[in-house]
Specification:
about 425 residues; alpha/beta; Arc Repressor Mutant, subunit A; 4 domains; five-stranded parallel β-sheet; OmpR/PhoB-type_DNA-bd; ATP binding; P-loop_NTPase; DNA-binding; DNA binding
């Protein structure tokens, strides 16, 4: 696969990394706005019809044109009002001179895995699934550690598959053609193919997976995604957050839990003198619980502890998730801030699903669907939207409770922020 860099005016767009730079400074765009810009610059000044933009950026979804107009308005504020030209009644085109350059990014062996915390059972379970199923999808919320687990699965199987293990990152793929191009570089004889970050091209990935499995009877596929492929041969492994102690545990016991162990390791990597002990373990446990045991959130929180302390980071969460940023340069751009990661996932939802998710945030604790009121159009659409939100780990369901639905702490904080941004922002991610 080739990675394209587009240069227009003072800007440089890196689709593979989902980065927009201006003079070396990164500019943050909402997920759908980035996708709209990608389509416009890829056409390099050629008119793009509204219908084509809607079909490419919101594949398979019924979306009103005003959603597109919101993103165009945001892009003009970022790039300059004259950067995008409107052709009345037809579409939009980039008005800045644009050039592109290509760099080769072939499929290759899996990246070396980092240490894995609290995932021993998950690793063994995934290995067992791959011994009995030809297609396994690791499904879970953003930042839960799907890629990390897949790297360890691939590493464990590398020898038994005679080294014929290939890793393909689909994070920058937007269309079926992108997926086809990525898989065209997979060497014949591959025994295990890992397709990482298949979220926004799940339909195209499903089609290619079905074709590959039919053509290569010895092939195994491992997919990481927030959106399952819905294939007959697919075995879904739902990855939950790391375990967190209930509280009152001494440090030596609490560190046996994955969330606490990860937090300790990541803080110590930045401050070698740091150590969780019986004096601070209670605060650490509260922080882990507040962050739902989500590995990405814990990594970002750990990066702030040397400057703010455990108590300071915990208190900052009362004001939102904005302190949780500053991830490593090795991480994808959307994983360098928790809000960006959540916004990426939110952008994969249809507008009605986004609106329902934000409406749920105003409900206290555990709730039932009848508490949402009568604003949702149609029971069938409501059930479909709820099914999607639960399936993609936006909403937690516990059938043993009389009020069976809830949002995680981080999810509720994000959704409330979306509500505060107003109705326009609800459809602009």
């Amino acid at each position: 696969m080739s990675s394209t860099i587009y240069r227009f005016g003072p800007f440089a767009l890196h689709p593979a990394q989902r980065r927009l730079l201006a003079g070396g400074t990164e500019i943050v765009l909402q997920a759908r706005a980035f996708d709209v810009l990608h389509v416009l610059v890829a056409r390099q000044g050629v008119l793009v019809l509204k219908r084509e933009l809607l079909d490419t950026v919101w594949p398979g979804a019924v979306v009103e044109e005003n959603n597109l107009q919101v993103h165009i308005s945001q892009l003009r504020k970022t790039l300059g009002h004259d950067a995008i030209k409107t052709v009345p009644g037809r579409g939009y085109q980039l008005a800045l001179p644009c050039a592109s350059e290509e760099t080769a990014v072939p499929a290759g062996p899996p990246p070396s895995p980092a240490l894995l915390y609290g995932r021993d059972d998950d690793l063994e379970d995934c290995l067992d699934l791959l011994r009995n199923a030809r297609l396994v999808s690791i499904v879970g919320a953003t930042g839960v550690g799907k890629t990390s687990l897949a790297r360890h699965v691939a590493a464990r199987l590398h020898v038994s598959f005679d080294g014929r293990v290939t890793w393909v990152d689909l994070a920058h793929a937007m269309t079926a053609a992108d997926v086809e191009a990525a898989l065209a570089r997979v060497e014949p004889g591959c025994r295990l193919l890992v397709l990482d970050n298949a979220d926004q091209v799940s339909n195209a990935t499903a089609q290619e997976a079905e074709r590959l499995l039919a053509q290569a009877p010895a092939l195994r596929l491992l997919v990481t995604t927030q959106v399952r492929l819905n294939l007959r041969e697919e075995s879904v492994y739902r990855l939950a957050s790391l375990a967190v102690p209930t509280g009152g545990n001494p440090a030596v016991e609490a560190l046996k839990y994955g969330a606490v162990a990860l937090l300790q390791a990541r803080i110590a990597a930045r401050d070698r003198h740091f150590m969780l002990d019986d004096g601070n373990i209670g605060t650490a446990i509260r922080l882990c619980r507040r962050l739902d045991g989500l590995p990405l959130a814990l990594e970002l929180a750990a990066a702030r502890v040397p400057a703010f302390g455990l108590e300071g980071v915990l208190r900052s969460l009362d004001d939102g998730l904005f302190l949780l940023s500053g991830g490593t340069h090795a991480a994808p751009p959307r994983h360098r801030a928790l809000h960006s990661a959540l916004d990426w996932s939110y952008g994969l939802l249809r507008p009605g699903e986004q609106a329902l998710y934000c409406a749920m945030a105003r409900l206290p604790g555990w709730f039932a669907l009848d508490q949402l009121g009568s604003g949702t159009a149609g029971r069938t659409s409501l059930f479909d939207a709820v099914d999607t939100l639960v399936d993609r780990a936006f909403v937690v369901f516990d059938g043993a409770r009389p009020r069976p639905y809830t949002l995680t702490e981080t999810g509720r904080a994000f959704a409330l922020a979306k509500r505060r941004n107003g109705a326009a922002s609800l459809q602009a991610s």
